[in-house]
Amino acid sequence: MINFLKKASYFLISVFVILSGIYIDLSLYFRVENQILSIFYISLFSSLSLFFIYSLWIKKFYKFTAVFYLVSVVIWMFWYGSIRASNDRNWQKDVALLSYATINGNLITVHNIRNFKYKSEFDYRVSYYDKTFDIDRLKGIDFISTYWMGPDVAHTFLSFSFQNNQHLAISIEARKEIGESYSMIRGFFKDNELYYVVADERDLIGLRTNIRKNPPEHVYMYEINADIKDMKKVFLNYINKINELKKRPQFYDTLTRNCTTSIWNNSLVHKSNMSLTWEILLSGHTAFYLYKKGLLKTYGLSFEELQKRAYINPLVEHSKIDENYSSRIRKKLLK
Q1: Strands 154-162 and 166-175: what pairing?
Q2: Could you tell me if 124 and 263 lie in one domain?
Q3: Which of 106, 135, 167, 249 could form a cystine bridge with 85, CB 3.0-4.6 A?
Q4: Range of the domain at 48
């Protein structure tokens, strides 16, 4: 029995060393800019890890190799922890300017609201504006899911609706530098900063319904079912996070700090009733999860019927992105 427990412990230690070693090697590969040094460090750490596992199983030198292995891990932890997020980089134009808000009682002035005028996805006129919102006039939140690569993966974000047809869309994304493209794998290794795109619906939603063609995106808009008090809390959480990121930037993370998990972290309505499930991690299924939890207005429809009703591309794809855009995408919602 004792011998079995020892072997089981050796096996668990070996699995831990291998899995952690894969993460450390990948972090060295993606974060060490000099390729020769990157390969050298990966080779060195991998050799130490494998030699430690080997010595553990043959029961020779394992204390000695364990010390070297642990020292190398500690050195890596100090190095990796020294990589800090920054707001001072050579950013792509669409994420170059940070939004922020000033709060005066119930009046919240949002600065640098993006409202680009698009000819195509990468050909646009840069435009921003400031706007003051009265939180007491908040009347609803819309949950937007946009698909471009099958049913399991979606980009999700929120749009806040105020009286007098005023809207503010906020999308949580990876902030990319010039020459960078988004990589899901690199997103695990401090590759991009976290960025809140605070925008006019004509920009953030219109880009997806009317402009992007390669690949095209399919956009669904659902109404959140919640008390106004809860909606105000969500809006204020977003505003506070936007201001926080301007002072203290953070890294985007593919798993723990992405477009959908960040909505969850920002206390999406009735957070106490929401668990971090696979339906949130696989963001293409988040709308169905919210439906099951009673967090979407259903109008007595099945989810399949509600999803058809929520599909907004046909409402605007043959129209100009103009001042009536927000009204047009809500035609079905108003019925």
Answers
A1: antiparallel
A2: yes
A3: 249
A4: 2-81
